[in-house]
Design goal:
There is one protein chain. It is globular, with a radius of gyration of 23 Å. It has a single domain, classed as Jelly Rolls, CATH 2.60.120. The chain contains three helices and nine strands. The longest helix has 20 residues.
C-alpha cells in the first residue's frame, strides 16, 4: 500500500512538472507587420483629410505632431499584427482636440475608440492583422470658425 502511495506521489510530481514546463509562456513577438491597407483607409476618410503612414519598429513607439485646421487634418495609418496592442495618447494645449481610431477595413466607418468621451488614451488589441486609422478632429462649432489646434500623439505598438 505504501509503495502504491509513493508511486502516486511520484506520478503526480512528474505530471505537475510537465505542466509547469509546458505552461504559459509569453507569445512570441511578431517579426513582421501586415501591409498597410491604404485603399481601404482612403475610402474611410473625408476629402479634408490626408493619409500618413507611421513607420516605426514592429514593437516600439513613435511621436507625431500636427495641426487640426478647421476640418483639415491628417489621418495616420498604423499596421498591427494579430495580438499586438496599439496604444495612442493625445496631448494638446486645447481641450477641443479629440481623436478616433478606426479599422481601415470596416466600411461602416464605426470608431473602435471614440475620443468624444474626453478620454486621451486609446488601447486596442488587434484580433487579426489590420491597419488602424488614427483621426484627430475638433468639434464642428470650432471647425466652422476655422480654429487651428496643435496636438501630439504618442503611438506605441507592442
Amino acid at each position: 500500500m505504501r509503495l502504491a502511495a509513493l508511486a502516486v506521489v511520484a506520478l503526480t510530481a512528474t505530471l505537475l512538472n510537465a505542466c509547469v514546463d509546458s505552461g504559459t509562456t509569453r507569445p512570441s513577438e511578431p517579426s513582421r507587420l501586415p501591409a498597410v491597407d491604404t485603399a481601404a483607409a482612403q475610402r474611410l476618410i473625408s476629402p479634408d483629410e490626408t493619409l500618413q503612414t507611421l513607420n516605426f519598429p514592429v514593437v516600439g513607439a513613435t511621436q507625431v505632431s500636427g495641426t487640426i485646421d478647421g476640418d483639415k487634418s491628417p489621418a495616420y495609418l498604423v499596421p498591427v499584427a494579430t495580438g499586438q496592442t496599439l496604444t495612442v495618447t493625445l496631448e494638446s494645449p486645447s481641450n477641443n482636440a479629440y481623436f478616433n481610431v478606426h479599422d481601415a477595413a470596416d466600411s461602416s466607418g464605426a470608431a473602435l475608440f471614440n475620443g468624444n468621451s474626453g478620454e486621451r488614451t486609446a488601447r486596442l488589441t488587434a484580433p487579426a492583422d489590420m491597419t488602424y486609422v488614427i483621426r484627430p478632429f475638433q468639434p464642428r462649432a470650432s471647425a466652422r470658425r476655422n480654429e487651428r489646434l496643435s496636438y501630439r500623439f504618442m503611438v506605441e505598438r507592442g
